[in-house]
Amino acid sequence: MSAEHERTATAGSVPRVESESRVESASKAESIPRVESASKAESIPRVESASKAESVPQEKISSLAAQIMRLAHDELLMHLRFFDMALARLEVKERKAIGCMAADGRVCYYDPVYVLKCYQEEPKLVIRTYLHMLLHCIFFHGFRYDKLDGEKWDLAADIAVEKVILDLRLAGVSLEEDSEAERKLRILEEDIGALTAERIYRYFRQNSLTADEEQELRRLFVRDVHSLWKPAEQLEVTQEQWKKISERIKADLKSFTRNKGGTESLEKNLEETTRDRYDYGEILRKFTVAGEDITVNDDEFDYVYYTYGLEHYGNLPLIEPLEYREINKVREFVIAIDTSASCRGAVVRAFLKKTYSILKGSENFFHKVNVHIIQCDNEVRSDTKITNDDDFDKFMRYGKLTGFGATDFRPVFEYIERLRGQNEFEDLKGMIYFTDGYGIYPERMPDYKVIFAFLDEDENRSPVPAWSMKVVLESDELEEAENEHQAG
Questions:
Q1: How far apart are CA 414 and CA 421, in angstroms?
Q2: 339-351: buried (b, 16+ CB within 10 Å) or exposed (e) per residue?
Q3: What is the DSSP code string of 106-138?
Q4: Distance CA 434, CA 375 (A)
Q5: What distances in angstroms separate CA 385 from CA 65, 135, 305, 382, 436, one per listed residue?
Q6: In this model, does residue 216 exceed pLDDT 90?
Q7: Is the pLDDT of residue 166 over 50?
Q8: C or N terminus of the chain, fewer CB within 10 Å?
């Protein structure tokens, strides 16, 4: 097993079996509450004590653990029929001596001794952990692991899935400490709102936890180990496959849970999971126009005659390469920045740097361009004209954000019309308006493309006009672009 697979959770996160005969510490063992009896418990012979596990043949341990995992699967399928495709997608396999349960998006691995120990102390804990891991897969939590702060994302994802489980109110997965967990979730909801992993992660990025706070959250919400989570391209099951399953679950919820409560958290997480992610570079290509750029046109250049001339006449090629080639690149567009009180500082600069890094590539940018960066709150505050890379660099180094009043989108549109009347643009293709979305939209449709770019999803925003496009940018992606820019 690789070193990555051997990595275990941080202390206090998952009750772990170090060997076949003992639990890592008494404090962790106490976090798994005991029950006197449970449904189906009689069908599984119990290991009377952990020390006696050594005397039980390994084949017997494996057989009992496999039976427990099948019961957990059947219990979930019986009560959560809309998870049928997800349960079928996630294989269950034994992996000895890992001391935990873990999933990689394709397989749920379990240590048979760990499963028996958990089942002996609390039969519901095995089903709870199985459901916990299944929800991680349904919500794609393992597919973005390499792009985020791992420890914060681990905890945020665990809290999100436990919130969903608690809201489902399934008797077969309830634990003694759930009431304490629910109290903590109510406190988090007051600060965060809907508890999706993405929202919780952003909250943790902005509000550092103390060591005691983090330890308490891990004790209440961590069930599995995330050491098998990898970059998406290394996983055998693709995110697209799980997205199809998640979309099916989202559709099935309406029929399976009609007139029933408890699925609001599940629906919120599915909305976050299945919503479209945008390729910002692809969006910028909507502003490209055909034009001639100074570059060799390989499609129309015949190397046979060219090399023939070089071979027979020295440095005299028979055919010169064509200097001009018609290609689609960005020539003219507007970047409007909402500098109202809610869109300020590092977030705006990160957006500009991300835009700049995409445009900077030679495949997207003409050598000479006409880009206007307009800052506006309830009126236009500044307009910076960019004609080349040097202008952009100077703006990013020395430009200042101004405004910070209320938001009104209409002044920017009116200002652009005045610029067009002054022949400032030859062929304006569009505008990107970066904003929080809380402003007054113009009623008239302009004759150029308009994209409203928002930071993170917000269900309270008013819909954008039908003639415009809406793009939601992830705050963590902007932060990543900012870090890359500083590193460069």
A1: 11
A2: bbeebbeebbbbb
A3: SEEEE-HHHHHHHHHH-HHHHHHHHHHHHHHHH
A4: 10
A5: 68, 49, 45, 10, 24
A6: yes
A7: yes
A8: C
**Mean pLDDT over all residues of the chain?**
77
Which pair of structure tokens corresponds to residue 57? 């043949």
The pTM for the full model equals: 0.65
Q: Yes or no: say if 118 and 130 are a contact pair by the CB < 8 Å rule.
A: no
Neighbours of 100 (CB within 10 A): 23
DSSP line for 163-187: HHHHHHT-GGG--TTHHHHHHHHHH
Q: What is d(CA 404, CA 381) in angstroms, rounded to the nearest whole number? A: 10
Strands 107-110 and 288-294: unpaired
Helix H or strand E segment including 388: none
Residue 485, C-beta contacts closer than 8 angstroms, at least 6 positions apart: 353, 357
Q: Which residues contact 152 (CB under 8 A, 6 or more apart)?
A: 201, 204, 205
How many angstroms separate the Cα of 464 from the Cα of each of 69, 438, 442, 470?
48, 10, 10, 7
- The rounded distance, in Å, linking the Cα atoms of 180 and 166 is 11
pLDDT over 90 at 102, yes or no: yes
Q: Are 465 and 442 in contact (CB under 8 A)?
A: yes
Q: Give the separation between CA 488 and CA 482, rounded to whole angstroms.
A: 10
For the packed helices 123-138 and 264-274, what is the interaxial angle rounded to 10 degrees?
30
User: Tokens at residue 167, please?
Assistant: 């809201």
CA dist 29 and 16 (Å) reads 8
Tokens of 449: 């493309």
pLDDT at residue 27 greater than cutoff 50: no
Angle at 62 between CA 60 and CA 67, to 5 degrees: 95
Of 144, 161, 154, the C-alpha closest to 196 is 161
Residue 446 has pLDDT above 70, yes or no: yes
| Alpha-carbon gap, residue 227 to 157, rounded angstroms | 14
* Rounded CA separation 20/115 (Å): 11
Q: For residue range 258-282, list pLDDT tens digits in order.
A: 656 678 888 888 887 777 666 666 7
DSSP label of 233: G
